[in-house]
Amino acid sequence: MSVTFLSELMSEISQRGRSFLQRNREQPRNPIELCEALVSRRGEVSSFVLSEAVWQSWDRLDRKGQVDFLIEVAQRFGPDENAVLEALAVAQERRDADAYHRLHRATEPRSQELIRRLNMAKQGTLRLVRMREVLTDAIGEHPALAHLDGDFFHLFNSWFNRGFLELRPINWNTPASILEKFIEYEAVHEINGWDDLRSRIEPKDRRLFAFFHPQMGEEPLIFVEVALTSQVPNSIQSLLATDREEIAPEQATTAVFYSISNCQNGLKGISFGNFLIKQVVEQLRNELPNLKNFVTLSPVPGFRRWLDGIRKDEQQTVLAPRDLEALAALDEPDWSAETESVYALNPLLQGVAAHYFLAARDKRNRVIDPVARFHLGNGAKLDNIHTFADLSANGRRNAYGLMVNYRYEMSEIEANHEAYAERGDVVASPSVRSLLKKFQSKTKIAHAS
Amino acid sequence: MSVTFLSELMSEISQRGRSFLQRNREQPRNPIELCEALVSRRGEVSSFVLSEAVWQSWDRLDRKGQVDFLIEVAQRFGPDENAVLEALAVAQERRDADAYHRLHRATEPRSQELIRRLNMAKQGTLRLVRMREVLTDAIGEHPALAHLDGDFFHLFNSWFNRGFLELRPINWNTPASILEKFIEYEAVHEINGWDDLRSRIEPKDRRLFAFFHPQMGEEPLIFVEVALTSQVPNSIQSLLATDREEIAPEQATTAVFYSISNCQNGLKGISFGNFLIKQVVEQLRNELPNLKNFVTLSPVPGFRRWLDGIRKDEQQTVLAPRDLEALAALDEPDWSAETESVYALNPLLQGVAAHYFLAARDKRNRVIDPVARFHLGNGAKLDNIHTFADLSANGRRNAYGLMVNYRYEMSEIEANHEAYAERGDVVASPSVRSLLKKFQSKTKIAHAS
Amino acid sequence: MSVTFLSELMSEISQRGRSFLQRNREQPRNPIELCEALVSRRGEVSSFVLSEAVWQSWDRLDRKGQVDFLIEVAQRFGPDENAVLEALAVAQERRDADAYHRLHRATEPRSQELIRRLNMAKQGTLRLVRMREVLTDAIGEHPALAHLDGDFFHLFNSWFNRGFLELRPINWNTPASILEKFIEYEAVHEINGWDDLRSRIEPKDRRLFAFFHPQMGEEPLIFVEVALTSQVPNSIQSLLATDREEIAPEQATTAVFYSISNCQNGLKGISFGNFLIKQVVEQLRNELPNLKNFVTLSPVPGFRRWLDGIRKDEQQTVLAPRDLEALAALDEPDWSAETESVYALNPLLQGVAAHYFLAARDKRNRVIDPVARFHLGNGAKLDNIHTFADLSANGRRNAYGLMVNYRYEMSEIEANHEAYAERGDVVASPSVRSLLKKFQSKTKIAHAS
Amino acid sequence: MSVTFLSELMSEISQRGRSFLQRNREQPRNPIELCEALVSRRGEVSSFVLSEAVWQSWDRLDRKGQVDFLIEVAQRFGPDENAVLEALAVAQERRDADAYHRLHRATEPRSQELIRRLNMAKQGTLRLVRMREVLTDAIGEHPALAHLDGDFFHLFNSWFNRGFLELRPINWNTPASILEKFIEYEAVHEINGWDDLRSRIEPKDRRLFAFFHPQMGEEPLIFVEVALTSQVPNSIQSLLATDREEIAPEQATTAVFYSISNCQNGLKGISFGNFLIKQVVEQLRNELPNLKNFVTLSPVPGFRRWLDGIRKDEQQTVLAPRDLEALAALDEPDWSAETESVYALNPLLQGVAAHYFLAARDKRNRVIDPVARFHLGNGAKLDNIHTFADLSANGRRNAYGLMVNYRYEMSEIEANHEAYAERGDVVASPSVRSLLKKFQSKTKIAHAS
Question: Which residue among B175, B300, C74, D243 is buried most deeply as judged by most CB within 10 Å?
Fold first, then answer.
């Protein structure tokens, strides 16, 4: 027996030695080799260690190195060519569900499995979102990255499925480490430090809601700021005024969504806003049954560029000559809504804006305004047009001060969405449509005369 | 203006009317129609309402109705045929990454999008897991469901990615509503009510760990029960004895994984056990640096069936005739390990078992024992063979009382896994290999003589 | 300088030496000496260490040793005699607020400071409650402990002030380690294991509320079990029946407090029940505005003893001779409410019971029933008398099956309490008072005849 | 029966009527009457409603009205005079434990019961702390409030017993609503807004710990700021420098308590600091076993006033004439430590400071410095004297820039405390004592010469 035992022991030792050598041999591998190992069969059992190793390599790369790495991944982690060819051959012969299924499996790029396994490391999802941030930045210069970006998008779309999102009210009891992110991420109406933040979340008639994801820790995905008011507001400055009078939430009739910001560039294209607004509407309606109006107070980022284009276009038929002249009052660098000639523009601007939303279209025959496309696509309707409603530098530069309300009426959302998505109709309130009618008939008369 | 306003109002009314009719028309739709609506463009904006409607239809169906529904989904929600044919034509012409990518997208069955959208309802993930439970039950009778099951598997594999799993220690401070699930789901060594449960989680030298998923609420996915001991145990009855002496965790040298149970039939095929064991090893090692041995005390569910096969096989060469006779002692309905003729079988049974693990293979040339395949595939090694180690009815019926230890040695896991996965080698301790040598030489001599 | 430094060093060393010796000298002190040190000036700075040392000594004592220790504390930790005499002398001279204040301070027994400092150890409050349990047990044999018990009571009354209590709903999501305490502490209607417990907290029409204290960890102080029903119940067996039909809480009109149990003997005399019931009434009323009736279904623990006393008393005038005879039907060991002669007792028993509550008094001229005293003192009114309402062994033994409802009507509580506390009036519903009238007139006639 | 029923009904109605009238009659009562009702027997059952009513009256009073109310309480809620006289008479006759106990109970002012019952309202404890803030503010003008303040103190001392305090680490994950309180309450080294706060709690080598009380919600009682460093610091400016190099906590050898602030004026006199420091020491020692030194970097608020007193005192013998002259360099309004004549003062200032701590005493024969009294009373020892260590306006004004380290050596605390508390000895390190020796011998020589 001692002989047997000794020989066993020898074999044991040699086995350990092999494993030791292997491990040593592997240490200095570059990230691409690590990725290959990670998607290999061995990766199954060592995914935790290997994925961590990839991430540490990645962290050591500079921006250029990271882009080069992504390009190499895009090139090397496509589908298995042989498997594709075989599946194609089969599909040629018999065009049935089985064949298609096989084709689908065979054409899955290995990069998808790579991304899934990279997700196994600690904070994998957050790291992947950051990785895609680099990727989407680089895609302009390196179009070859498009398919890899598609893989990220496909998986993120599945992982960030609405079923996995968690809506959290944010308030002054929220940890400071989370609050500071809202200061950082607010993209519509800048938050100037802690006192400004406090003025948006501490008063009882102000709310902030954000979506979080269980795997993204304290990183918000998107958030919306809400004001509870006793009437639909017509200016952002009055809404945010620090000396405004606070009202009791129970007395509010209107919830105004005055700012929606996406937080993660790495989640570009994944749509959260639609769900966020509707879930917040539902939550507020439960808490405050007196709320009747759910409206936005939204910027019109494409308005000025479009209007200026028309003003320069000698062929245009949108504006009557007299109106063209009147609009020159807005060319003053510091025009004021108090100036008579500007104030007098009010009906004209409203009419032009109604035209911009309801009649004008871009080259792809779409509604021109991106914010409009977002809300109309969600099933909201265009409810009101407010001139001189955002007199900040930004508001003047983009929209000559114009803002609008979109209204979310739960019982109409489906019909509105269909009207817009299938027939391209912009559903608008009677008053907005009436603005257009008046504007068009006046212009027609002007052109006719 | 009054004319304009009136006409606007009329149009408004008609618009509302249309929406009302649509909604009424839609109400009594069957679940398949609801699914069609859900994956349609309109589904984007109404996914929450529509997915909820599908689920409510589903809940109203009886088992047969549910299976019929799944079969219809499998038939109707394949890929868009036209898109596939177009993509195929392109791929015929140019076999490049673009073409394959397009092919991959085109061949994705619409059922995948359906499942993703069904996930948007409240408790969507849990409901989908329950739906797949019905599906996998029915698949034997209805093989046409296989591809749909593949879609579930594909998405679950992505959603239940290890990065999304949460390891929770379970103890006597855990809510009763969660604890009762472990009584229900324990599949290896039955838990007889609350006192038995308590004896497995309250003592300081006993632990229970489970994986949870953020979208599955209080439903565990898999759990493992651990005993902290001062030596590697050789019998389950002594391990679970209620009168055993408790030891201080700091004095334990050995963590024994004595029961691993999957909880969700609807997650069949998604592998959690591998990660669970390794994460628990890591956690225990951090908490209790004195732990040196991480071993299982595992059943051998295929042993008796295999051995009985050999005993009936007149052509067999595994057992010497004398040994065949000796084994007859186990045919007594109530054989006892105290009986001399049984007790004397000890070396023989150990040798036969070593053969069963190390030498015998099934028709597909695999290790026969499914539990062995699981642990060897995870990179564990076969460490010890214990006869008369589980004398429960179950233990006798399946394995003539045999149990084994698999050992998880973190530094060897990768090498062990490779040896097994790539070369089919079962890594075993010197003592187990020595058992095989002795058994084989004795048998050879016996056959030779 | 070196000389200076050396001499400093010497002094340093001697200082450390002294401290070392002191510490060594102190180690083996007995608990009384430790207590003396703890209330001394030095105790201020070392209270944490010293109080822990007292507790460890206490834990090592057996029950007799603990009682002896308490007796010694009672003897030695009275007020400082000299300070009392001085303060008395001052008070003799001038009877003013200053003098009284000084007297109050001087007469405070040192045991109060001792208890306060013992509270500084880990889990100090819980340990003190357990200590008082020993004390109250021993007080019968050792009346000298009464003042010390008064000190505990005084401090507990302050520490367990309602402002410090936390009301928690208990349900099936509560940790098992807390739930098991309710099985242990239920004193009115025994809970038979986990399934019985579950039937009392999991159904939507059943609630359990308990008071906790921040310093008592998971130990409940008192709890009440509530059934939500559609009518005022008249029998405990039907209320607890496992096959009863569950109702939706929103449909309930009545909250029945069917069991109230104190959990801590060491808190004897500290009154929580009053606050508990009222806070639960308030909480349920907020959650379920449909609730109209808040009633108990209470035992009548003193009824049988009182009635049997009358039955044996040859001088009694409460019962008519004919009624005395009729009551003999209850002397059958297994009398059944179905037996005609028993069933016929119904009106008589109700009348006798009305007399028991409204007319009979004990030697101290109090309402006889302790449960009645509790609820009437809280401002409840006696609402209903139910015969054959608790046919358990307990219910027969104590009350011939009788139970009653007390009703908590928030708008009447203050007046009810005053009527009872100041004039000794038992506020009862018209129907109960009518029972008494009928019983009395019948009896009068019988005695007259 | 109908007669009976009717008469019952009449009585019922009259009863309700009485209760209604009482309630109406009571409504407009002033706070003192409400307090009387609250401590009366009726108060037992209605304490919740009545205490709330007192608080609402209190909230409506202006500051003067509140002080008047407190004065009236002080006058009217003393002990029951008759009970005191009876108890006195008894005590005259027999001077035993019983008599003293009775005397103690009889002399308890009713204001104590009042405070206990006011504590039953929502947020009662916090409101009482705020009430005492008013009281302590007014006590200078109204010495008659002293006894009432003593009642508050007595009860707070019991309620804020160390056993009830909760130590919480505060960091950047703490809710903003709590963090802002630290900005408000920091009393030693002002926190200038959120960025400054962040620099004190977010870096890994900075900590902040606070005591909370379960009944005080988010209001901290006291907090300490700690810096983890690699050596004992000798200047506050270098410690707080924003450009300092952060170190890993594991590498720190020293925990510096550089700021301790009480937060609640209403808890004046209740001592938390002692426990806070010791508990933080214990917690840090557990977490970071490498920590060897636990020292403060403390201000010396009484130093300059004392030194200036001596400089003006023509009879003084502490300073040699030459030293007196040299100190004139500090009379420059903007003296700088870089100026040669100031820099040269270093040894002199250290010597004078050693004298200030070790030799000088105030009229009550106490150590002069209040911060020194606090730390020495806690058992710390004077470890180091640093000149030019706090060059802020505050540091120059109070201490000519001087700061000191007190050292908490757990094994010496008891001995240090006893030395100080019983013999008045200031325990100091050899180096500090050596400074004194040198200073005294030099001065003696100077005076002698």
Answer: B300
